[in-house]
Amino acid sequence: VLFRSKEIETAGKLADMRADADKLERKLLLERAEATRKFNELREKAADKENVSVEERIEALKEAGRIEDEITQKEIEAAKLRFEAKKQENALSESTKEDLDEEARLQARVIELEAARLKKQKTLTAEITTNLREAESDRKRIEAEKKADQDAADKAEADAAKALADLKKQIRDAEAVTEEEKRALELTKIDEHYTA
User: Fold this and answer.
1) In this predicted structure, what is the pLDDT of residue 38?
2) pLDDT of res. 2
3) pLDDT higher than threshold 80 for residue 196
4) Which of these, 66, 154, 156, 170, is most buried using a 10 Å CB contact count?
């Protein structure tokens, strides 16, 4: 009698596990649909390179990953619950081929969900990495443009300073009228030539 009541208690627990798995799976149907919609919206935002900054695209991808991971974890838990119930049921009684096949299918479903989660994480990580590289490339391009602009401004400034110095020399040369001023100018030119 004690063995029979233990068996009945275990059968009740298994029925409860299956009922919990059923409820969880029903609830997850809507949650999955909503999560998929939100995930796709965020992926769409992340793909919009024209209107969305790199930082916003990266944040959208991270949020999409978080949403996908959260719902997939719930699906994995539900699948594990159903698998564990079937596994314990098969351990209790004589299992038919169909029972064992169902247990294997349920275990495979858990593995498939985990593999799909990892695959999506890998895809999102690759997209985030691509966006980070793009941001770094943009930053380097902007720095190079700024440096080129600064170099051009520095060259223009140096050219203007040289032109001004040349103009001052021409004016000085034109203003030297006496022989003495001309000799002094020649000495200044020679001195400038050798010190330059």
Assistant:
1) 96
2) 56
3) no
4) 66
User: Are the beta carbons of 21 and 76 closer than 8 angstroms?
Assistant: no
- Residues 157-175 have a mean pLDDT of 87
Verdict on whether the full-model pTM lies above 0.85: no
Contact present, 72 and 39 (Cβ < 8 Å): no
Q: How far apart are CA 78 and CA 127, in angstroms?
A: 29
Tokens at 189, concatenated: 């030119």
What is the distance between the alpha carbons of residues 65 and 122, in angstroms, rounded to a whole number?
Answer: 10
Other C-beta atoms closer than 10 Å to the C-beta of 94 total 6
Cα separation, 47 vs 134, whole angstroms = 13
Q: Which residue has the tokens 């200044």?
A: 188
| Nearest by Cα to 78 from 35, 23, 116 | 23
Angle formed at CA 118 by CA 113 and CA 120, multiple of 5 degrees: 95
CA–CA gap between residue 116 and residue 95 (Å, rounded): 30
Amino acid sitting at position 187: L
Averaged pLDDT score across all residues of the chain: 89
Contact 90, 29 (CB under 8 A): no
Alpha helix segments (H runs only) across the chain: 2-47, 54-92, 97-175, 179-195
Distance CA 18, CA 20 (A): 5
